[in-house]
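Known limitations

Files may contain more than one protein. Parsers should not assume a single record per file. Below, a two-record file is shown to illustrate correct handling: read the sequence, read the token line, then continue until end of file.
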Amino acid sequence: MSDSLYFTRSGLTKIREDIEKLEKRLQDLQSQTAIVAEVGGDQWHDNSAYESLVIDIRGVDRRLAELHRILNAAKLVEPPTNVDKVTIGTKVKIICDGEVAMWEIVGFGESEPDLNFIAYNTPLAAIIMGRCKGEIVKGKIAGCPVTIEVLEIARAFS
């Protein structure tokens, strides 16, 4: 993962909090290995609790490694000072194939469609990134052609 991943301040904070929680969870799981091995032996075929614990440790370790890779590629995006183009940190009102919608463009992995937050790298956001008010753009979402008009752009977060 060599490309930069862009985050809002809150998104970056959440990644760091997730890493902290997972590191604690990993320590808790690792501290149980001696007890579980002592009770039933450390051979997988003899001790299903030990096998399950090892699987849990590996899963947490993989997730931690992935979050560290993401954090190493992370770039903080400051709130925009100019809102003449759609960027991370802007709220944009659009018409997509006749339907009006309002979206806040957020950082990598920060999408929450139910709250109208979409990450800059989602198909819809990718189509409108860098566009100005009044622009009409055509693109594809899930293989279907769409026409989007940017109606309004405003600053979203501070």
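...continuing to the second record:
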Amino acid sequence: MSVDEMWALDATDQAACVRRGEVSATELVEASLARIEQLDGVLGSVVACDADRALAQAASCSGPFAGVPTLAKDLLAYPGLPAAMGSRLFAGNVPTDALPYTDAIDRAGLVVVGKSATSEFGLLGSTETLQAGITRNPWGAELSAGGSSGGAVAAVAAGLVPVAHASDGGGSIRGPASLAGLVGFKPSRGATARAVPMVTPFSASISEHFVTRSVRDSDALLALTAPRAREPYGPGDGRPLRIGVYDTSLMGRRIDAEGAAALAHAVAVCTELGHDVRPMPAPPVSGEEVGTAFFTMAGAAMSGMRQMLAPMLGGPFGPEQVEPFTWALIEWYDAQPMGAMERAMGLLGHIDEVMRGYLAEVDVAVCPTILGPRPHLGHLAPHLPFEVIMERTEALAGFTAVHNPAGAPAMTLPLHWTDDGLPVGVMFAAAHGADARLFRLAYQLEQAAPWASRWPAFARTGELG
């Protein structure tokens, strides 16, 4: 296999090729940079790329994934690369200090060739910014790649890199991965090394990980970025699990035909594997409460940032420096009655308690990843009215958002495909700390219903239909 064909291999196989001497780390990184140059002008998945830095890193990297190219999400302050956070406000910001999480990425041997696109400050579920433009889904020119990890999933689905860093505060790994036909795992709270300079109530609900094409890549990367590196969980013994299934979102809405077909397929595969699959009710949590708590925490973070930056900017920034939705969120939060943060924290604690009891009823809970229909570009554009974005965000995250306040692990797997060949993810969740259980199930499902050969035509032709 030539180096130009290795884009179709997962990260584990690419690293093995480097170890065997079939390709050098430098050649592997050069091939990735060439694909980015060739294809990303259409996708818009990469917002910063430093070829010289990446090639220098490739020449001296070591670790289990030595030489494997990757991208860091633009929300992660990876030292030496721009970190605009999807915002014009931070254009030109280049962090210099390493974090425990970025150190772990480097120790793994991954070569960060650039930064992937994200919505401004990771707030929106579609990656369409005034700072960097639109990120398209490789599965269709008018389809959203989701958010806030839209650039990460677009790049991996198109074969620009085999894996890409992503983060999830309410579904921002799982939703985009479902739309792009990838493995999207949100780890338990505390399962990965610290990825922010200072932990806040808002950042505490955010999980860091990677979007991948294979389960083994996701498993290995979680092990390498743990607070203390460990061995991957592996496939396990395949013992039967109690699996509960539900199809109603936190907002009380039923899934569309695509989601129903995907869920039915997942149930059939799990049953054939010998698991005890049974219906269960949706989590007894109010979707409106989850949405209110999330936007309160996000609004507090944005409002606090505005005040914090005032001395450096000569005064608080205004609506001309951030996107319309970000500004509207700040105004919405600032108009809340006294004690809004305390109420939000109370809601999050209540959701955590309820979900601990709910997830203890089964080994794994299964549901759709997103509520249909599949979002197109413009569905969550930042210039839409605030109330419209709030409503559409709550609907889109109606299955995913509940696992973040609970600190619970959850993953989406590309188990189903529509008649016209588009991926539909199914989500699996478990109690806090049961990450290994989900991975062991994922290995089984990947073998029973493999997806490795399914690529968007764009990855091979460069033509976006």
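Parsers that stop after the first record will miss the second one. For reference, the second record is described as follows. Residues 9-285+347-460 form a domain with the Amidase signature (AS) enzymes fold (CATH 3.90.1300.10).
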